[in-house]
Hints:
Elements: H1 3-31, H2 39-57, H3 60-84, H4 89-107, H5 133-137, H6 142-160, H7 162-172, H8 174-179, H9 184-210, H10 222-232, H11 237-259, H12 266-270, H13 272-285, H14 288-294
Helix pairs in contact: 1-6, 1-9, 1-10, 1-11, 2-3, 2-4, 2-9, 2-10, 3-4, 3-9, 6-7, 6-11, 10-11, 10-13, 11-13
Amino acid sequence: MSPLASQAAQSVIAAATPLLLAATGELVVEKSGVLNLGVEGMMLIGAVASFIVAHATNSTLAGLGAAVFAGAGLALLFGLLALWLRANQIVCGLALTIFGRGLSALIGVGYVGLSSPVLPRLSIPGLSAIPFLGSVLLSLNGLVYFSLLAVLGVAWFLRKTSWGLVVRAIGDSHSSAHALGYPVLRIRLCAVLFGGAMAGLAGAMVSLSTNPFWTPDLTAGRGWVALALVVFAAWRPAWLLAGAYLFGAITYLSLALQALGVAFPPSLITALPYAATIVVLVLISRDRRRIRLHRPAMLGQPMEL
């Protein structure tokens, strides 16, 4: 395979990974019946935390740890407001995104233009030299492999474990689960924290790999695309994987068109992935039966104690 094709494949994977990480976390959150629209804010907080810590310690591992705690910390704030205080989940999620965007810009103001260490690529001796398989699939950073394992792990957890069944049951009828003695709010909080940690890692993927130079709004709306992916996948992990790489390919196409100097306005080409997101959601929304079949029945509805 030509070097150009290998580079294209690597670019698609790099663009898809943050979407897959964030969407996998949000999938678990929504399966529990909670709608958290603050994914973009949590990604930004994870991005700035990982960037600053990695820049200060010269350790990407420390940066990833900071991203997990930062994303989960912001998710905890959402959980306290939306679950225990029963505030409107949509309003709380939007507020979380606005708060995360402003806070990340404030914290990162002294780091604009600086660079951070880049996540190292894994290399398997003897296998990394195999054409395409080695240069693309076996020479990626660890977060790429983790994102794939996370999707498989979530699919197994939701389908094959008793606690996964409990999470799905809470998402479909929290009152019934509560009547059976399950701690609904605590389980939902765990799901929200997991979603925040995954969103933080998604932000770290952007700041430590995709674009290791800090600028405000570094995630550039990827959190909103991740939210759309969950609906696109109809709350099913396998389709989530396919959707993430589809949108990653569209993102790469927009960048490739710019590099080739295609005679379109640059702003229009940049908007291509987000326009595709809107088109896909409009097409999916027409299949109401598919949505009703897989959508958690209690999604976005607070539990009245």
